[in-house]
Design goal:
70% helix, mainly alpha
């Protein structure tokens, strides 16, 4: 009996130690995530504000506001949707491509007195804290101790990392996608539903996330068994925002897939074959008739595509089938457009790219630091170009 009692005490002590370690790890993850978000906001906003003065062609004090300079391109459309809805004439005609969660959150903050221009920047900031915290834990558990900080820094200073600060939907999407995969890979499917639904409500990329999660559930099932019921329930809940949005589009526009129609008609995103897409993108790097900005951006599209293919290859080799399905389906759809478009920004959503880099440079600190320096340089350049009104993916 004494031996049994000692064994039980040892088990309790081990479990208690593991719980304390997990709690400390979780607190550290949230602390690093918060500090990283504060750091990136100070850097990128400081750079953007300074550039607005130093690159100004006018005289006297700059009249560009610190918040307003971030409302370029899609950010302006999202703010209009939040303020006026999808059907108001003041909203861009083809705005249903923007899924509703971000505008709804902006409107909710506006309802309690927060200016919409500020709300649009607060949401990506808060969402980035969540995304970074779970990325930290994911890297620590899957790659090894010390990997979490590197993963967070690489994502925060990704070449298109400015879109985690600007009033775009990338940060909100990652705040759902990374926790969804984190819990799914641990087999804690009851905790997958909410983050999956957040990702789905934020971006149409949520469709590819669900595909990846389905493959992850299939991977975990015992041979000869069906997918776990809890996993099925969570995946159904995760898909609900898409179902609700399609129901809204059917009621208002008579077309449940009206966001695809808007992609085709308003954004020139009709479907074509990958060969045509690549040839057209390559042409943009050579034909002088194209705007100079587009010619340079097209080169970035091709580099991003190569990196994306590398992520899918890495995931397949490592047998990370969920990551492979998620990354592969997203890249496949990008390749079916008339030309490659915003691929570098899409890579920001493919967080496995960061895990691949961290794993590949784990024993080579110099290589990891070189990647971070190069990535940060491009990110700072992107912040300047974007806030000055230039096209940056």
């Amino acid at each position: 009996m004494a031996n049994v009692r000692e064994l039980v005490q040892d088990i309790d002590q081990t479990a208690s130690t593991a719980t304390v370690a997990e709690t400390r790890g979780s607190r550290r993850a949230w602390f690093i995530a918060l500090m990283t978000v504060i750091l990136t906001h100070l850097i990128f906003m400081g750079v953007a504000w300074s550039a607005s003065w130093l690159l100004s062609s006018g005289r006297g004090p700059s009249d560009i506001g610190l918040l307003e300079m971030w409302y370029q391109f899609d950010a302006e459309h999202l703010l209009k949707v939040a303020e006026f809805g999808y059907t108001d004439p003041r909203t861009f005609e083809f705005s249903t491509v923007f899924f509703p969660l971000f505008p709804l959150l902006v409107k909710a903050l506006g309802a309690v007195g927060i200016p919409l221009s500020l709300a649009g920047l607060l949401i990506p900031g808060a969402a980035s804290v969540v995304a970074f915290a779970y990325l930290y834990r994911l890297a620590e558990e899957e790659i090894g101790p010390g990997s979490g900080r590197s993963a967070v820094m690489l994502l925060a200073f990704f070449p298109t990392g400015l879109f985690l600060i600007a009033p775009y939907t990338e940060a909100l999407f990652l705040a759902g996608a990374i926790p969804a995969f984190y819990y799914a890979r641990k087999g804690q499917w009851s905790l997958v539903a909410l983050p999956a639904a957040i990702a789905m409500g934020a971006r149409n990329t949520g469709i590819f996330l669900i595909i990846g999660l389905v493959i992850e559930a299939l991977r975990q099932r015992p041979p000869g068994h069906l997918i776990d019921r809890t996993a099925i329930k969570s995946l159904v809940i995760g898909t609900l925002p898409l179902i609700l949005y399609c129901s809204y589009l059917l009621a208002v526009f008579g077309d449940p897939l009206h966001f695809i129609t808007d992609y085709n008609d308003g954004w020139n995103r009709g479907f074509t074959d990958p060969f045509h897409s690549l040839v057209t993108t390559l042409g943009m790097t050579e034909i002088p008739a194209y705007p100079t900005n587009w010619m340079m951006a097209a080169r970035g599209e091709l580099v991003a595509l190569c990196l994306g293919v590398g992520v899918v290859t890495w995931a397949v080799v490592r047998k990370h089938w969920g990551y492979a399905a998620y990354s592969g389906t997203l890249l496949a759809v990008l390749l079916t457009g008339p030309f490659l478009y915003s691929t570098p920004r899409a890579l920001l959503q493919l967080f496995p790219v960061v895990l691949m880099i961290v794993e590949g440079t784990r024993e080579r600190a110099g290589a990891r630091d070189a990647v971070l320096v190069g990535s940060t340089s491009l990110a700072v350049l992107g912040a300047i170009v974007f806030t000055q009104g230039g096209w940056f993916y």
